[in-house]
Each structure stands twice: as structure tokens, then as C-alpha cells.
Amino acid sequence: MTTYYRAKIEKIVSENTTNISGAPTPVQQLLVKISDPAGKISEVTVRHGQLYTISNDEKLTEGQSVIVSSSDGPEGLVYNVYDVDRSTPLLLLCGLFIGIVVWLTRKRGVGAIIGLAITLATLTYLIVPLVVKGYSPTLVSLGGALIIASTSLFLAHGFKKTTFLAWVSTIATLLIATGLAALSIYVLRMTGSASEETLYLTMGGFEHIELKGLLLGGMIIGTLGVLDDVTTAQVSAVVELKNANKNITKKQLMHHAMQIGKEHILAVVNTLILAYAGGSLPLFIIFTVTGDIPVWVLLNGEMLVEEIVRTLVGSIALILAVPITTILAVHYIHKISDPELLVAGLHKH
């Protein structure tokens, strides 16, 4: 059994190099102070780099925080450096993010942060455990997406009818995107087993998980992440146009709202594609440097096709969200005499 501890490096005992697979690699012996869950503190000597290859950039220094693992060996417990402890700077970055959001948006920002916490909890304690137990990843992801959309939208934007319009538009667009993603997976004969992560799943005793469904579920969750921004912004645009000119015709309201939506599409689609491309940059590099394989063959590979389909489905959903939201919002808001009350959540219709 392996046990993990937080530790701090007290001293570099020794540092040299050894050959692993014919290449010289650094090896360090470190004196670290560890603290177990019960609060007991002790000093032990740990190895870093002897059982695995590290680079010079991965060498550790005195005072650095690390995670140490211990396991049974022939002569008792053997301690090794498992990883650098990044928890403190990561928590500081999260605190900075939360502080900026709340500072700029006040109560609405608090609601958004609570919605984010519920989103993470839904992913961690609902979607993942149910998928691991063997439930359909597609159905579980759809159910989780409904919970996430409901909580994040209403907590961030308030319990009012404009938010309800954005919620309906988000769910409607998400269902269309789900159908498109499922059709793409079927037509392109995607197995969901092309990525390195799915290899780890099958090797780790999770062969019962439906990989195609897992791929589709990932697309559902990813698409949801780009929809609420468009739908809420589009509903707000319709309300503001109506407030600016209460005598505007339905046709004019639709036209001007769509013009705003088109500008939003042009900006966000580029952002979305760059976000996916940035996350898959190592994959792009690997495929680019294999110069002996034609580009059309590379583009046909399932690993790259997964990223392309994920990007295109999300982009199409984002584009469709604009007319869907605009039609729903214009149809409802144009009939209301005072949209300002609607925004405040006071209008009774």
C-alpha cells in the first residue's frame, strides 16, 4: 500500500548522475520533513530520480514543498518524491480569481462562484461516480448538464424571466448539439479510444465504461460551457433594444438583435477555436513534425478528428444559440410593455 505525505525539503544530502536507458540523468538524495494526516512530523531521507528519469529542470532545491510517497520495500518503508506540491500557489491563484470576480460584480459574482462550486461538485460527485459505476455516460452527462445549466445561470443572473429565457435557449441548443455530436460520432465511425486517457481507463480496470458515450458526454459538457455566455448576452440585448425604443416593431427588434448576435458570434467562435487549439497544441506539433505522412492522412486520424469534431460541434452550437435565443426572447419580450421590470424580475406575465 502506498501512502502520500506533504513534505518540505530540509537539505540536499547528495546529488549525482546515473545512466537510465543509456542516458545520464540526475539523482538526488533529500532530507525532508513530512507531516502525516494525524499531524505527526518526522524527518526521512527520500530518493528523487533513481527509479525514474528526471531532467535538470526537475531537480529540487532546499525549502521546496513536495509530495512524498511511501511503500513497503525489502528493508522496510521506502520513500520517494512523488511530485512537487503545487497546492499553495494554486490556492492563491484561485483566491485571486474569486476576489476579482466578487470585487467587480459584487453579489452576482458571489452567485457565480457558488454556481461554479456546484458545477465542480456535479462533475466530481455525480457525473464521474455514475459513469464509473457503469451508467450511460451520455445520459449522465445530459442530466449533469441540466443541473449545471440550471444552477449556474440562475445563481449568476438571478431568478427572473430573462434568465429563464436564456436557460430554455441553452437547453434547446444543447440538445441540438448533442444530436449533431452523436451523428458525427456515428458517421465518422469514432470509437472514443484514440486518446491516451482512454488507454489509461482500459488498463486501469474500467473496461466497462462505454467509450463512445464518454466521448459524447465530454462534448456535451464542453459545449455547455460556451452556451450560457451567448444566450444570456442575447436576451439582454433584446431587452435593452426594447427599452431604448418601446415602439420598436417585432421585425426591427429581431433584425437589430441578430446584428448584435452576429458580432458576438464572430468574436466568440475565434476564441473557442483558439481555446481548443491551445489545449491540443502538443497534439498539433506531433502531427506536424511527422513529415512523411500526408496532411490528409493526418486529418483522418481519430485522435485529431476528435478535436476537430469537438471544436466544430461547439462552434455550431454557439452559432445556433443566437437565432434560437433571439426568436424566443423577441417573441416574449416584444409583448411586454415595460421590459425594465422583466430585468428586475418583478414583471408578472
Topology, element by element:
Layout: E1 3-20, E2 23-35, E3 41-48, E4 65-73, E5 76-84, H1 87-132, H2 137-157, H3 161-187, H4 196-203, H5 211-244, H6 250-279, H7 281-289, H8 295-300, H9 302-333, H10 339-344
Antiparallel strand pairs: 1-2, 1-4, 2-3, 4-5
Secondary structural class: alpha+beta
Largest sheet: 5 strands, antiparallel
Strand portion: 15-25%
Any idea what the radius of gyration is?
A: 26 Å
Number of helices: 10
**Which overall shape is indicated by the principal axes computed on the Cα atoms?**
elongated
Distance between the termini: 63 Å
Mean pLDDT: 84
Spatial strand order of the main sheet: 3-2-1-4-5
Helix and strand element order: EEEEEHHHHHHHHHH
Total strand count, please?
Answer: 5
* Oligomeric state of the chains in view: single chain
Total individual domains: 2
| Residue share in helix | 55-70%
Uncertain stretches of 5 or more adjacent residues: none
